From TrEMBL:
Annotated coiled-coil segments of the chain: none
Phylogenetic placement of the source organism: Bacteria, Pseudomonadati, Bacteroidota, Saprospiria, Saprospirales
Gene3D superfamilies: tt1808, chain A
Domain called Putative restriction endonuclease: residue spans: 42-177
This protein's name: Putative restriction endonuclease domain-containing protein
Residues making up the signal peptide according to the UniProt record: none
Amino acid sequence: MMEQATEQIPKSLVYEMVGGKPIYYQGYKDYLTGNKQMDEIMGSSKLQALIVAELIYLLRSFYGNEYLIFTNELGLRFGKNAWRAADIAVIKSDLVEDLNDQYLDIPPELVIEIDTKADLQEVRNPLGYYHEKTEDLIQFGVAKVVWIFTDTRKVLIAEQGNNAWRIYDWEDQLEITEGLAIDMKRIANRGK
């Protein structure tokens, strides 16, 4: 994690907080040196944005009004000084008492991540970041975690109570929740 004094870094550049230690947005150093604007760091690529939009449409159509579909790096609060961000989170509507400016402190049923916006250069084990975040989400109570990787065109699916995480190619039919299969290749090619 980051070793320099955190009081010099704006809180808005903190992507996640793990064990009281910040994980910053990828490119935060470029912002600090004046080489990038805040929106250049926090923004998504066209492909990432398309995937999120298509998945939200599919999820909303599948779940209907019984569930809320959250997006936009929803904060999931695990405890004091411990929270993670979620690209997409699906939770039963009746579990969310009110909509306010606080992070969600109850586990969604499904979390979908598209790549990461975390600066992994500052993380001790960059590959371990994905494993640790997935474990944190599952221990929090998330039933299923889906990682979509745009560079490698792979999808990782981890489920509560199942130690065998599965990795798929985009060409594979993926059941992201019971009864809802997605075709990542079709989704990614929609923008062409």
